[in-house]
Write a structure and sequence with these properties.
The complex is a heterodimer of chains A (115) and B (112).
Chain A (H helix, E strand, L loop, with lengths): L4 E3 L2 E4 L5 E6 L6 E8 L3 E9 L2 E4 L8 E7 L2 E6 L8 E8 L9 E2 L3 E5 L1
Parallel strand pairs in A: 2-11
Antiparallel strand pairs in A: 1-3, 3-8, 4-5, 4-9, 5-6, 7-8, 9-10, 9-11
Chain B lengths: L3 E3 L4 E4 L4 E7 L4 E9 L6 E6 L3 E5 L2 E6 L4 E6 L8 E9 L7 E2 L3 E6 L1
Parallel strand pairs in B: 2-11
Antiparallel strand pairs in B: 1-3, 3-8, 4-5, 4-9, 6-7, 7-8, 9-10, 9-11
The chains are: A mainly beta (115), B mainly beta (112).
Chain lengths: 115, 112
């Protein structure tokens, strides 16, 4: 398996533009997580899905952020409109179901810069 | 007070040294504890996982949990340059099983 695949790896956009980040989880994993990592705040959980259903989006900072998972093999995180403070590395991670199964497998991340 | 605190470093040690990385936490409901390693410009990867107080060893790595003090540690013996990375502690509760909280990470450099 190729692991969790994120695209694009890097994104530079102007303030006010819409940004869409994409994620393909590992096949067979029931959980999908979106994280944001910054120097100031570390790794923060934004939202996670179980079987394509959003379970907890309390970490989504504002209404400008939205996430979808239309099927088991694809998820998007959208920021509209983007702002310079959204600049961060965004990680997608997936994990299989199972008691005690806590290992989340992370993608390479998308480095977003909003200018 | 943040739920999980970790000294950000950077920590620089000579090759072969014993490294001690630590986290403290405030939520007594945390019951399982993990250490992730993150190389530069990569995603974090799980290094160690423990579910109870005490020690767990895996090769050169030992994870230690002291629930009474709300303190966890990761020890690296015979450190290697390839251990240079950021180490993030992470923890979760039984009830909020899916919501793992990460520490901010400690940057480690092992100098040859």
């Amino acid at each position: 398996d190729a692991g969790v695949i994120q695209s694009p790896r890097h994104e530079v956009t102007e303030m006010g533009q819409e940004v869409t980040l994409r994620c393909k989880p590992i096949s067979g994993h029931d959980y999908l997580f979106w994280y944001r990592q910054t120097m100031m705040r570390g790794l923060e959980l934004l939202i996670y899905f179980n079987n394509n259903v959003p379970i907890d989006d309390s970490g989504m900072p504002e209404d400008r952020f939205s996430a979808k998972m239309p099927n088991a093999s694809f998820s998007t995180l959208k920021i509209q409109p983007s702002e310079p403070r959204d600049s961060a590395v965004y990680f997608c991670a997936s994990r299989p179901t199972g008691q005690g199964n806590t290992e989340a497998f992370f993608g390479q991340g998308t480095r977003l810069t909003v200018v | 007070q943040k739920e999980v605190e970790q000294d950000p470093g950077p920590l620089s040690v000579p090759e072969g040294a014993i490294v001690s990385l630590n986290c403290t936490y405030s939520n007594s409901a945390f019951q399982y504890f993990m250490w992730y390693r993150q190389y530069s410009r990569k995603g974090p990867e799980l290094l160690m996982y423990t579910y109870s107080s005490g020690n767990k060893e895996d090769g050169r790595f030992t994870a230690q949990v002291d629930k009474s003090s709300k303190y966890i540690s990761l020890f690296i013996r015979d450190s290697q340059p390839s251990d240079s990375a950021t180490y993030l502690c992470a923890m979760g509760t039984k009830t909020s099983y899916d919501k793992v909280i990460f520490g901010p990470g400690t940057s480690l450099s092992v100098i040859p």
